[in-house]
Amino acid sequence: MMRDITLGQFFPGNSPLHRLDPRMKIILTVAYIVAVFLADSVGGYALLILFTAFLVSISGIKVSVVLRGVRPLIYVIAFTSIVNIFFTVGDTPLHLWKITIYLEGIVTAAFRVERIWKLLIGTSGLLTHTTTPIALTDAIERLLSPLRVIHVPVHEFAMMMTIALRFIPTLLKETDKIMSAQKARGADFSTGKLIDRAKALIPILIPLIISAFRSADELATAMECRCYRGGNGRTRMTCLKLSAIDFVGLFVMAAFIVGVLAVNVHLPVYTV
Amino acid sequence: MSSIRFDNVSYIYAKGTPFEKEALDGVSIELDEGMTIGIIGHTGSGKSTMAQVMNGLIKPDSGDVYIHGENIWADPKNIKKYRFIAGLVFQYPEYQLFEETVYKDIAFGPKNMGLDDAEIDARIKWAAGTVGITADLLNKSPFDLSGGQKRRVAIAGIVAMRPSIMILDEPAAGLDPRGRDEILSNIIRYQRESSSTVIMISHSMEDMARYCDKILVMNHGKVFRYGTPAEIFSDSDSLENIGLAVPQITRVMRRLKQLGNDVNTAVYTVDEAHREILRLIGGDGK
Questions:
Q1: Cβ distance B176 to B142 under 8 Å?
Q2: Is there a contact between B41 and B217 (Cβ–Cβ < 8 Å)?
Q3: Quick check: helix, strand or coil at residue B6?
Q4: In this complex, is the C-beta atom of B8 within 8 Å of any C-beta atom belonging to chain A?
Q5: N or C of chain A: less Cβ packing under 10 Å?
Q6: What is the pLDDT of residues A233-270, one digit of tens each?
Q7: Nearest to A87 by CA among A112, A119, A115
């Protein structure tokens, strides 16, 4: 149930993807997203699929786990493809029963679905599955640190993000526990009219909000006990340093983008 | 007749992820009826999972669970019924209170059972009395009470459902010695008065020796031993091997024996030790 949500969860490991510097990983993820949008031919998509499969295979994370993380968004994907199939007008009409759809619509839908999938796997899947939340926010803080010049409180933003990420599993666990406790008292969350189901959430939400405030309060006290007073003058225990593997990663990604562009230009079998 | 019976029950947490963990591993056990049964075990030995499997909050991956001889997963639609028969009090149950008044919070369970208002009212008053909640507290907000009182209110919420089997996961955790004694003796009183079965998870060997008729020892998701406190605590070596210990007073008696005193070491509560030492020194307690 609640604990089965894998989207954005970190899985420990020692794959090349795990060992990349988190800053480099974020930059490469952005490059990957650009590549996903650059690919607009069948050849480009094929290359994209191959490359994503390659990334998943070297990440050491089970394919089933990656796919399960994407599952909650199946409705968005379904909606997008239906819209594309029925609302795209093209040159090749297909008569299905009384409805006319166009071949272009189906192709566009397939491409869009493919694009959403790849985006999700690349970002949520591979980035967050192979990077600890702490490393991720650390990297974001470093990448955004030039903004400090124009007085953007970069450290504070990063700290807020760290705390928010840190509490997601805690709150999920707490929700699970409270739900079980109320179920033990005969609460029912899955049957009844919509209004009854909404009402059934009260016994979960109130204890959950109280517990969230309690956790926040305890955390604030704990931070103050350790003399936390914001980012000015703070040093780090672990310093991020680029190594050979990061440059290999950069090279592989650059080669991939060049490949996608080349395939788009030279093999435009079917472009959208 | 058994209260709860496990037949080769296994359960794995987070199946299919790298965090997968076998919480119960082929557990087969028949728990007695009409007595207080303690469950002890190291952290992560499967005690809390076992409690949730007992009342059908967790469906085991394999194996069958029987309550009063009925297979509870025979028809999954009926599972709610068994949650009222086997009432489960979670660890730190005071964190699930949500209503405006103590009265309404205790009423949550009985209301879900579909009882009529007069019956619910009677049950709330009876349950509050059983756990030692005075009538003037019933109209207060549960959030204004002290920690110990909140705990009692939460337990009353389950008592009001009048379960014939009551399962408690560390009911006395985090309470001071006095609150601890009061809560545990209230639970025992409930057990005697309603001649129900109480199953209690605890880390305190002293509480187990004092209140339980039978003890179930869990280790790494398996049943290690099941028997009377005397049977369990007479074998201190194997208990220590799995990271548990006998009650401290038993250790004192063993040491007395080692020092050459002719005492009985099969003593598990302070009262028994008191009598035994008086016998030894030939006094009559005055």
A1: no
A2: yes
A3: strand
A4: no
A5: N
A6: 777 777 788 888 899 999 999 998 888 888 877 765 55
A7: A112
CA distance B161 to B127: 9
A206-240 pLDDT, tens digit per residue, is: 999 999 999 999 999 999 999 888 777 777 777 78
- Least CB-CB distance to B98: which of A12, A188, A203? A203
Please tell me the total number of residues recorded for chain B in this structure: 286
Record the tokens describing residue A3, joined without a space.
């604990």
Helix (H, G, I), strand (E, B) or coil at B247: coil
Residue B164, exposed/middle/buried by CB under 10 A (0-12, 13-18, 19+)? Answer: middle
DSSP state of A122: I
User: Which residue of B52, B95, B96, B168 to mutate against A (max A Cβ within 10 Å)?
Assistant: B96
State phi, psi for B12 to the nearest 5 degrees. -120, 130
Supply the pTM of this predicted model: 0.76
**Chain centroid to CA A19:** 19
Domains in chain B: ranges and CATH: 4-229 (3.40.50.300), 247-286 (no CATH)
Report d(CA B51, CA B73) in Å as an integer.
Answer: 16
Chain A residue at shortest CA distance from B158:
A185
ipTM: 0.86
Calculate the CA B269 to chain-centre distance: 18
